[in-house]
Amino acid sequence: MDERKRDSMIAYLRHRMEEFGIKPEDLAAVLANERGGQKNARYRSATGDTWDGQGEMPQWLKQAISAGQSIGHFELSATPAPAPAAAAPAKKRVDWQNDPFAGSPLARSNSR
Fold first, then answer.
1. Comparing C-alpha atoms, which of 55, 58, 70 is closest to residue 102?
2. How many folded domains does the chain comprise?
């Protein structure tokens, strides 16, 4: 988005907030609460969908499991893992963010 469009959008949003009596502090509080809700997420997909493990399993997770992916693949760790020992080689991290096949049978690898 170019600078002019951005400034125009900000002016529009300020006008609408004033029209409805919304203060910047109100907006900040709502955004803070939404971020806080994401901390409770227990599972996350490559596209950013989350589930806290409560209630019915979301469709994205059902589809991934039926395609052969393990639920553990999507689980977020509650605490950071300890640093690997100096003798152990570092495991290459894979960025699944832009992988169109994440969660599908094409993403599984038999070579370990």
1. 70
2. 2
